[in-house]
Design goal:
The complex is a heterodimer of chains A (about 260) and B (about 270). Chain A is an all-alpha fold. Helices cover about 90% and strands about 0% of the residues of chain A. In chain A, α1 packs across α6 and α8 runs antiparallel to α9. Chain A is elongated, with a radius of gyration of 21 Å. Chain A starts with a helix and ends with a helix. By secondary structure, chain B is α/β, with parallel strands linked by helices. In chain B, strands 6-7-8-3-9-10 form a 6-stranded mixed β-sheet, sandwiched between helices. In chain B, α3 crosses α4, α4 packs across α5 and α6 packs parallel to α7. Chain B is globular. The model of chain B has no long low-confidence stretch (mean pLDDT about 85). Classes of the chains: A mainly alpha (about 260), B alpha/beta (about 270). Chains A and B meet through α5 of A and α2, β6 and α3 of B.
Amino acid sequence: MISQIQSLGHKALGFFQRLGRGHILIADILKGQPALFLRPSLIIQQLYSVGVLSILIVVVSGFFVGMVMGLQGYNTLVDFGAEESLGVMVALTLVRELGPVVTALLFAGRAGSALTAEIGLMKATEQLSAMEMMAVDPIRRVLAPRFLAGFISMPLLAAMFSAVGVLGGYFVGVGLLGVDEGAYWSQMQASVDLYEDILNGVIKSIVFGFVVTWIAVFEGYDAIPTSEGVSRATTRTVVHSSLAILGLDFILTALMFN
Amino acid sequence: MDENKTLVKVRDLKFSRGGRMIFDGVNLDIQRGKITVIMGPSGTGKTTLLRLIGRQLKPVEGSIIVDGEEVTTLGHRRLYELRKRMGMLFQNGALLTDLNVFENVAYPIREHTNLSEELVRTLVLMKLQAVGLRGARDLMPAELSGGMARRVALARAIALDPMMIMYDEPFTGQDPISMGVLVRLIRNLNNALGLTSVVVSHDIEEASSIADYIYLLSGGKVVAHGTTDDLANSDSEWAQQFMKGKPDGPVPFHFQSQPYADDLNI
């Protein structure tokens, strides 16, 4: 019994220590942001590897998700003779929910895991230590640009996901199932609100981008510097990011849309 | 010892990790312009000592003074200023894998100076020439052998003309030719650039051949120190066992265990 309580206490302490280290790290990363604007090449390089290389998976997924929503939405709406509202349904679902959430999940799997593995391996091969000994702060030189790139990329990727998803819904709804093209676009234009829907979706994707990139760089930096440690850290990034995205989505949705 | 001649002064150093005491009152002095070798069996914390001197780790107690500055209490800015004057050669080279040889050596120069591209090129080629790898400037780290990677890392370590270089196990896993090259490089660079070198090693023959002074570490303490000749002729059983590579002695062959017969139930 005592040993179980001890073990529980040990785990709780470990959890809070990690939480503390994570917050100290993000504070250091944020402190390093202003200096990055003097060296834009560092950010551009990371925007490419974190953002641009994620475009393909996001765009393809967005198109398929939009097509599925076109199919499913049509089948439901047609029973009520409301198939002309397909455009609104697809757009609202994507902009408010699926765009930010699915993009963030894909982003955690594609870019988050890559960030953790890269930083973890740099630690395991002593590259981060070597930087420290060259008087180069790895938090500012390695972590800060990656964090900023993830933070910038995520909302842009979510916007792409939603836009392509709307096109996917259009392709299936209008192109294959015969929904009126004018109704598809005009109802969407009339019902989707810039602030209520789009801005809230953008805020969600910004929050997800912050959290996913934070988790990814922290897990990499805090990884045990062995192959097993890096592997575990990469898994943790995907699992923790996914849970954080879904949990935060619930909280944000509750706050934004009552 | 003369204060001005001592570049690194370690006093009453205590350090523990995971509940295990690694250093329990270590005292040592590293003289300017000399090659000081720190030897000891695996697991005695030789690499840890280098990390403590570079303040990548913080001791529990004790003082480490490098070039007159107390490293253990230095602030971030002054620590990084001090590190610009220290080079470290890691065991596996620790080259940045996404940069080629030239860019790896140029890295600290670009990070800390605003020199023109032409001057950076000249400096990098001079450093690569010193380690014999000017021709390998376009290779990626993955294309280098272990010995070449260490030489590139050495070129990078001397890129900013530091006052001292710390070598972490530079001879481990090297073929005899690479080993000979590294031994010669460490000695030549030390003399030519007026460096102070700290070499952590357990390769007795190679390390002894270039050492001006040797410290032997074991059980968290300095157990013997002196020149190569001093240690070879030392009365210390420990020094004799280590310098002559005897399998048994003060460092036992067997890990601590219950009696053999008891273990076999006879």
